[in-house]
Amino acid sequence: MSATLRLTGPLHDGLVVMAASTIETGAVLLAHQLTLDDGTVILLGDDLIAVPDDAYEIRTDRALQITSDGYIHALKTARNRGMIALWVHSHPGNRAIPRPSIHDRSVNEQLEPLFGDRTETDQYGYLVVSHDGGALTFTGELSGQITTPITRLVVSGQRWVFRPAYDAPTGADRALFDRNIRAFGDGIQTTISGLTVAIVGAGGTGSATAEQLTRLGVRSFILIDPDTLSDSNTTRVYGSTPAEVGRPKVEVLGDHLERIAHGVHTTRIQGSILTEAIARSLISADVVFGCTDDNAGRLRLSRLPYYYLTPVIDCGVQIPADQDGLISGVFGRVTTLHPGAACLICRSRIDFALAEAETRSAEEQQRLEKEGYAPALRGVEPAVVTFTTLVAATAVSELLERLIGYGDTPTPSELILYIHDRILRGNIEDPHPGHYCDPATRQIGTDTDMLLGLNWAS
144-174: per-residue pLDDT in tens? Predict the structure, then answer.
């Protein structure tokens, strides 16, 4: 069993500042703890509370000693918020080794019962941080009934970081990914190969996205789609053939991805993320690509980054026509959702009336349409493989941009493709004050009673 620590950009920056200090520095990290069905632990970082200057008794480049005033207030805050507390301290110096020393382990033994008791969680954790040329390095552990190593640190913000613990085995297949590595180096390729990516929607856009990610090196997928393959789907769905019409789309796509490369593992879920159990499966993903064309699904995906620090890249294609049936334009959209960026609601990308209609039974929706109380659901929308593939490639490129940072700063959080005019435009929109995507509302890990803060059908 292992643990992953997820952080916002500002929390990660705070740890980097600690690690870069020339003298040892201490702090308490507050986090919500989740344990998934497979035993994997996810820690959602909420706050980093520094040790006050007057609480240090000894503080040099090799030693640290503080009074209880350095952490008691933080433990009280953790208890009031229902979180666990991790003791964090630095080992100064570029490329210093962030392993706990004999003295560190003695301190951990002393702090463990105190932290567990004062937070009323019976849990204790520690993190030792250093840096390698400004990049954070760390080791860490959770203690309680079971000792769990913190093997991975994930950061979701302007840039995305997926970093293994110090001394963790790394390395990519240099022969297979030689051209990728020449473009962006061993480290990024190793990161890509370690990702678990969820694809919501296994149609034209979703299948093109999944195939490109597989060829980039992603080896773990969660595929979600309720539908079976139709005749018309074969013109757009990658890996499909007429012989597979009638099979679940997730099975068609999963088989295809596993044929592309050795070591690809696909978890296939035939169903809708409007179902709570299926929506919960997204929590374990490192990145989610929203390739669904329904408003109700997007309504749920839009909340994921702000409650679970799981970034979402939502995309779609629109080919509107005038009243005579003539195409008036071809548009694509790729919106990157992460803490600090506006959600789909703040961007007015969701039609609430249609989202509500999509959750009703067919009989109820037909009745309300006839009575004039509900908008008609959209019929079959136009779709063309070249356009869905173009949008998929743009979405996958946004993942690379967040990992590598090769583009403009600040990075646009949404791209609009005016395909008919051969124009690409980016924009940045901040969260609306007081909305769930506003960092000030502190939604991270708060949905213990209602997943994503929503009501779910039984």
Answer: 778 899 999 999 999 999 999 998 877 777 7
Distances (CA, A) of 275 to 7, 37, 131, 296: 27, 17, 42, 11
Q: How confident is the model at residue 368 (pLDDT cuts 50, 70, 90)?
A: very low
Phi and psi at 261, nearest 5°, equal -150, 150
**Residue 336: its H or E element:** strand 331-337
pLDDT of residue 167: 86
Calpha distance 49→77 (Å, rounded): 10
Residues 355 and 269 in one domain: yes
Task: Decide: 28 and 74 in contact? Cβ < 8 Å.
Answer: yes
First-last CA distance in the chain = 31
- Interval 374-391 mean pLDDT: 74
- Is residue 10 located within the same domain as residue 64? yes
Q: Is 245 found in the same domain as 106? A: no
Exposure letters 412-421 (e unless 16+ CB within 10 A, then b): bbbbbbebee
Only one residue has tokens 């997943």, namely 451
Summarize the chain as % helix, strand, coil (round to 5).
35, 25, 40
Is position 257 within any domain?
Answer: yes
Q: What is the pLDDT of residue 59?
A: 95
| Spatial CB neighbours of 108, under 8 Å, sequence gap ≥ 6 | 87, 100, 124, 126, 143
If residue 86 lies in a helix (H) or strand (E), which one and from where to where? strand 84-94
Whether 139 shows a pLDDT value over 90: the answer reads yes
Most confident of 6-15, 135-144, 378-387: 6-15
Same domain, 64 and 202: no
Domain end, chosen from 140, 164, 188, is at 164
Nearest CA among 417, 233, 200 for reference residue 314: 200
Query: Which residues constitute the domain of residue 23?
Result: 3-164
